[in-house]
Amino acid sequence: MSAPAVIVHPDAGLLAKAAAARIVTRLVDAQAARGSASIVLTGGGIGIAVLAELAKAPARDAVDWGALDVWWGDERYLPAGDPERNETQAREALLDGVGLEPARVHAMPAPGGPDGPGGDSPEAGAERYAEALRAAARPGEPAFDVCLLGVGPDTHVASLFPEQPALYEEERSVVAVHGAPKPPPTRVSLTLPTIRSAAEVWLLASGGAKAEAVRLALDPEAGPVQVPAAGARGRSRTLFLLDRAAASRLPEDLTGPGLL
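and the corresponding structure tokens:
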């Protein structure tokens, strides 16, 4: 795993604009090298704000949207189109306004999917998503070019909450999550090994309520079961993209050089 770097922006608005610009550069570089690219999206306030800024950015047209695979790090197990789903919010903020290839937009499962006549099953949906990941795998290459993750105030990333069973998962790439401490309690999430398969992992946080979680996530002594964000690292690069409030509890040697 790569060692994390910290970049601090003055406020959440500038953080969203800068992260959107970074996404364009990263995807264009990947497509220039390979002809296609892949990204994992996140929900939450700052995650959706980044997508909204990307939708407005003139440089967005530099991306070949038809050659992009879109994945999600986690999803609330709610009906398709529910306004609380990360997919719904991402479509409204960006995805429905660019020329994506529908087959390359990999939404996570929703109730009512093809889980069999016995009823809906997040476990079956998680396995289908894992199958899609396996089908898209490129031997010898990272699973994703960039994986975006929001950092929760309790240090959760995706739907991997502290001390939850999913944090011990080492074999499966996608799991159903039950009893999440943040509603809704039932979710589907990538596991930490899958997150770590990304070439780059970018952790986004804004606001003072995230400051302690960010500090813990960057503590070299923190374990991923207690502090899930401490276990979210990319194969070649890990970035913490923060605003000043979220970085307010970090030591100066971490934030000084990166302050923009």
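(Above: one complete record from the training split.) Residues 4-255 form a domain with the Rossmann fold fold (CATH 3.40.50.1360).
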